[in-house]
Amino acid sequence: DAGVIQSPRHEVTEMGQEVTLRCKPISGHDYLFWYRQTMMRGLELLIYFNNNVPIDDSGMPEDRFSAKMPNASFSTLKIQPSEPRDSAVYFCASTLGGGAGTQYFGPGTRLLVL
Amino acid sequence: AQSVTQPDIHITVSEGASLELRCNYSYGATPYLFWYVQSPGQGLQLLLKYFSGDTLVQGIKGFEAEFKRSQSSFNLRKPSVHWSDAAEYFCAVAGASGTYKYIFGTGTRLKVLA
User: Contact, B29 vs B15, CB < 8 A?
Assistant: First the structure.
């Protein structure tokens, strides 16, 4: 299996621009998680889906952030408009069954907002 | 409040020396406990996990961890560190009662001296 795939790996954009991060979970996994990692706040869960349905988005920082999962093999995290404080590494992870299941992480997208 | 504490931000050991990384948690229910490792520029990889049963769990790469309920701890150990173990290590807790949200510690960065 190719593992969790994220694109792009690096993104540099200017403040105010729309940013879309993409994730392809491991085939067959029914849970998908979006995390943000910063030096100041560590690793934070933003949102997670079960069977393509958002279950908990309490970690989404602001209305500028939105996430979708149109099908079992694809999810997006969108930031519109982006701000410099959104600069971070964004990880996608997937698991089968949730809870006790091991979460498999993608390589992350390093976002820099100028 | 649920939390995970990794009191050591940085640890430096010599190659061949033993290693112990500390993790303390605060969790109301019976927790699931995890240790992940993150190499530079990479996503997180699971080292080991504890759900129930034997409180000493073995993981990959020669790591082990011991769950001590009385101390609310789940410390990671390795008897002899290799230079390739240099990375950042994260402890995480998840609920056994159905919540699928991991709570991560802030991480411990391990440096290995040749």
Answer: no
